[in-house]
Structure formats: C-alpha cells, structure tokens
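Subject: Predicted fold for GlcNAc-PI de-N-acetylase, 253 residues

User T.R. writes:
Posting the sequence so we have a shared reference for the thread.
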Amino acid sequence: MKPASLSDGRRGPAQIWNSAPQLAQIPAITPCTLVPPRARVVVIAPHPGDEVLACGGLLQLLSSLEHPLLLISITDGSASHPGSNAWPASRLSVIRPQESAEALRRLGMPLHSLKWIRGGFRDDALAASEQPMSQFIARYLQPGDVVFTTWRNDGNDDHDAVGRASANACRQVGVRLYELPIWAWHWPLRDGAIIPWQRARKVRLNAWNVARKLHATHAFASQLVGDPTIGLAPKLAQDLLERIREPYEIVFA
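User M.O. replies:
I've generated the structure tokens; pasting them so everyone works from the same file.
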C-alpha cells in the first residue's frame, strides 16, 4: 500500500519526522565524507524547489567547500495547481524556475558559476518517461560525480520516477548516488518501518544553515498558497515548514 502523502488530508502530529524514535539513532556523516575533494555535485530535482526541500542545508555546506555544482530540474513544476485559474500552467512554468533561482540566491549559491539544466519533461507525468529521462540524465553525468536526488520510494510519483531514472543513469556512468526523502517524512508514524533506516545518514546543520534554508523555502510563493476557490491547499503546508527547522538533513547512502 502506498503511504499517505502530505497533501492527501491525513496529516497529524504523529508523523515520521517528528515522532519516529529511529531518527535519534541515525549516524552522522560529514559533507567531506559524502563528497570527495574536488568532485562535482549533481543535484537532480523533479520540480523547481525540490533541491531546496531535499538538501538546501547540504548545498550550503558543499558550496562552502567549493565543489562545482550542476543542478538538473527535470520539469518546470507547472502542474502544481491543477484546475486553478489563478495559477495556470502557463504562469507557473515561468514563475517556478524564477522562484527556484531566488531560493538558490538566498542559500548563498554562486549563481555565476552554477550550471543549471532544465529538462522540459512533463510535470506530474514522469513515470511514463522514465527511460528517456534516464538517458537524458546520463548525458550530463561524468565519472567522479556525486549525485543527489529524491528517494525512489518517496510516495510522490514524480519523485519516485526521478529516483529510479537517476539510479539507472548513475549505474550506466558509474557514479555515486545518494537519495533524499521529502514527502516520506510526512507519512503517518505507523509507516515508519518502510523507511530504510539502515541506509540513513544524518548531515548536521548549524542555526545559520537552517535559517537560510527556511528563508529559501519562502521564496516559493506559488507553493505557499493554494487556490481556495477550488479547495486547493498549499503544497508547502505548515508541517513541512516546521520540519525545515530541524538541525539536520538525512540522505540514504
């Protein structure tokens, strides 16, 4: 059974991120251990903004170590408000990449040297394009890269498809892959056994890292509001914003 997502109306206080006892037992890992010196970091985001939600703190740490960075945005995020006249796809396809650029600026990313590839794949339909997506990703990878992307079992169809496609691309090129959960942290606590705790590693963040990540998250204005006229709730719900304040990020090695 697919676990509950953050947007399906089953939210409550007993979510994995704020209740799972396993969180305290996750071993810590340093950015230097995750990424060797001078290695290029590749972040693959299903939608603009996922790079911040998944690893906005880690990006700050890796940037301070002067790792070259490639960001691949698979879609433009234009399907986030289905049926909305206030936020039609034509508007979102322009706004969401702009929001992502502002969020990266707030994180302190060196935008002058950041390489950013936009895939142009159809938002909310990536499972049907998994093979061409994998080929697309592999085209931009090179030996020695370290890749970060969404966990292939995150519970969002696009996140899952990008996780699988990235894993296939990394196998083709022979590079290291780390997966990052986003929506999975907001599953009900009873689904915590699905999390691969044995693969989890904790990257500690200081108060400044957390503050900048939260500030960056608020750059996604389109995701902080829904459309009350059609009963559409914000994508970035209060529970997610509260989780952003946690002083760590978790990767699956």
